[in-house]
Design goal:
Elements lengths: L9 E5 L5 H8 L3 E6 L13 E2 L2 E2 H6 L3 E5 L8 H10 L2 E4 L5 H4 L4 H7 L1
Parallel strand pairs: 1-2, 1-6, 2-5
Antiparallel strand pairs: 3-4
């Protein structure tokens, strides 16, 4: 019996905290691109015992992901972010209500790109 065909998709992930769902998506064949804050990175990068600049918690939540630092408030970053969103099947974020809209990455703006 042949295993079922895996369908891949691209998931763009901008979250203040890592989630297991995005790590699981990467393990299931998704191309997950994590967008981190410039200079700050992910807050879990500093939680727990640090070895070689990262924690095992950070590594476990960011497995199967690629990462890029983008300043979403900088207008020079808009073309890069637009390219990522155009190629994404899913855009995940967990910011406070209204934050993505103020940055022009709310549902309507992203839907217009994609």
């Amino acid at each position: 019996m042949e295993p079922p065909e895996r369908h891949s998709y691209r998931r763009t992930d901008h979250q203040r905290r890592c989630t297991h769902g995005n790590a699981d998506a990467g393990g299931s064949g998704a191309d997950v691109i994590r967008i981190e804050e410039v200079g700050a990175g992910d807050s879990v990068l500093r939680r727990g015992a640090v070895r070689n600049g990262v924690t095992s918690y950070y590594l476990s939540l960011n497995r199967n992901k690629r990462a890029i630092s983008i300043d979403l408030k900088d207008t020079c970053s808009r073309p890069l972010m637009a390219d990522l969103l155009r190629s994404a099947d899913v855009f995940v974020h967990n910011t406070r209500p209204g934050v993505m809209e103020r940055l022009n990455y709310g549902h309507d703006a992203v839907h217009a790109l994609n």
